[in-house]
Design brief:
9 strands, two-stranded antiparallel ribbon, DUF8091, about 25% helix, about 220 residues, alpha+beta, globular, 2 domains, DUF8091 domain-containing protein, 7 helices, Arc Repressor Mutant, subunit A
Length: about 220
C-alpha cells in the first residue's frame, strides 16, 4: 500500500498533479518533469534496478531516495485511535545510510542519463501496537510514514560524487577503519561504502594489510566516468 510519504514526495517533485503516475509502456512512472522521469524509492533500490536500467535506454531518469535523518514516532493501540505515545526517536540518520542500500544498485549507478538524489528528510512513523508474542520481534507494525520536511537534497551523478560525500582526507592507502572514522559511521557500514566505491570505480584495491583490504582513490577522470 502506498504511504503518505510516497504521495507527498510525488507532489513535491512533480510540476503539477497531471505529471504524477504516468504510464510509459508497461511501467508506471511516479512523476514526469519535462523529458525527465522521476522515481521515488523509499524501499530497496534493488527493487527498481531492472526498471531503471530499462528506462535509461531511452530516457533521463531521476531516482529519489528519501532518508530520514530524524523520525517522530507516533504509536497507537489501533488504527485511527488516540496516540499512546509520541516522541522523536533518539537515533539519527545521515547521507551515509544510502550505502546500505546502494550495494544493490551499483550495476546501474553511475550512468550518464541517471541522477540519484538523496533527500534528507524528517518523517513521522505511525505505529500500531501488537500484542506480546512468544518469539522475538517488534511489538508494533508500521501503519504509515508521513513527510514533515525535506531538509537537504544531494544529487549524485558520478562515482566521484559518492567519494565527495566523505569529509576530510583519507590516507594513502586506506582501509575501512579509516573510512569509518572519516565518515563517522560504524565499520560494517564503512565496508559497504568501500564495496560501492570500488564497484563504481571511485577507489581501487591495491593490497592487503593482515586481514584488512587496502584501497586508493582512483584517478579523477576514471571516477567521474
Amino acid at each position: 500500500m502506498e504511504t503518505s510519504l510516497h504521495r507527498q514526495l510525488k507532489s513535491y517533485y512533480a510540476p503539477n498533479a497531471d505529471c504524477e503516475e504516468i504510464t510509459l509502456g508497461s511501467y508506471r512512472i511516479d512523476a514526469v518533469d519535462g523529458d525527465r522521469l522521476i522515481e521515488i524509492q523509499h524501499g530497496s533500490l534493488g527493487a527498481i534496478r531492472d526498471k531503471v536500467r530499462c528506462l535509461l535506454k531511452e530516457h533521463d531518469v531521476h531516482v529519489v531516495k528519501p532518508i530520514p535523518i530524524r523520525k517522530y514516532l507516533v504509536k497507537r493501540k489501533k488504527k485511527n485511535g488516540e496516540p499512546i505515545s509520541a516522541r522523536f526517536s533518539p537515533s539519527r540518520g545521515s547521507v551515509f545510510d544510502l550505502f546500505d542500500d546502494l550495494v544493490h544498485f551499483t550495476n546501474v549507478f553511475p550512468h550518464p542519463r541517471l541522477t540519484l538524489e538523496v533527500a534528507l528528510t524528517i518523517q513521522e512513523e505511525h505505529r500500531i501496537a501488537r500484542k506480546p508474542r512468544r518469539w522475538r520481534g517488534k511489538d508494533y507494525r508500521v501503519e504509515d510514514r508521513v513527510l514533515r520536511s525535506v531538509e537537504e537534497q544531494i544529487e549524485l551523478n558520478t562515482a566521484a560524487d559518492l567519494l565527495n560525500l566523505i569529509p576530510g582526507k583519507l590516507p594513502t592507502p586506506f582501509h575501512t577503519k579509516h573510512l569509518a572514522e572519516a565518515a563517522g559511521v560504524q565499520r560494517w557500514l564503512a565496508q559497504k561504502m568501500a564495496y560501492c566505491l570500488r564497484n563504481t570505480g571511485a577507489i581501487t584495491l591495491v593490497g592487503k594489510e593482515k586481514n584488512a583490504l587496502l584501497y586508493e582513490i582512483a584517478a579523477q577522470d576514471q571516477a567521474a566516468a
